Amino acid sequence: MLEHRFRYLQPIVTCFIDFAFDSFDRKAPWRVMECDSVPEKIIRLIKAFYELTSAQICVYGETGRLLQNKNWCPSRLRPFSYNIRLCDRLGNTACRHSRDIQISPEHRIRDLEYANDVVLFVDSYDEMQVMPNNVSETAAKIGLRVNVCKTKVFSFMHEN
After folding, report:
1. How deeply is 11 buried, as exposed, middle or buried, from its count of CB atoms within 10 A (0-12, 13-18, 19+)?
2. Contact call for residues 120 and 128 (beta carbons, < 8 A)
């Protein structure tokens, strides 16, 4: 998409948002699943699976001590459960005032989400001033915090 915008001299401003998954409410993913109508039985099953998980590391035939999973929210589940809720809220609230970027005559896009990554697209700096703040506020409502140091902005503006 960036190549297309560059080739046709169309302006684009992108913001690659990084979320701080290392400092979040450990119980929030379960609440997110409840809000998304995941059956309680499935939530209990996932919790039980991760609560009862332990590991041992074997190096050169020597087995280390048993490591218990004290962080009972699985790290792989965090981005997944948050991304579902965040995608829903981004579309409904955080990005509702921005215009979509046209990527073909029939298709427009405003953001992409994959795993724990979010990329925002706009065609002006003014719009990009507002969107990351809206995303940050929206994410905070579901227990996420934007890692400002790792969030990056990229832009291409053709000068006449």
Report:
1. middle
2. yes
Q: Quick check: 73 pLDDT over 70?
A: no
Smallest Cα–Cα separation from 120: which of 148, 146, 150, 90? Answer: 90
Which range of residues forms the domain containing residue 100?
2-156
Report CA 23 to chain centroid distance, whole Å: 14
Q: Where are the alpha helices (DSSP H) in the chain?
A: 2-7, 28-35, 40-51, 77-89, 125-141
Contact assessment for residue 21 and residue 78, using Cβ atoms and an 8 Å cutoff = yes
* pTM reported for the whole predicted model: 0.59
For the chain, the domain total comes to 1
Contact (Cβ atoms closer than 8 angstroms) between residue 63 and residue 91: no
Tell me if 84 sits within 8 A of 36, measured CB to CB: yes
- Residue 77's pLDDT band (boundaries 50, 70, 90)? low
- Nearest by Cα to 77 from 136, 124, 29, 134: 29
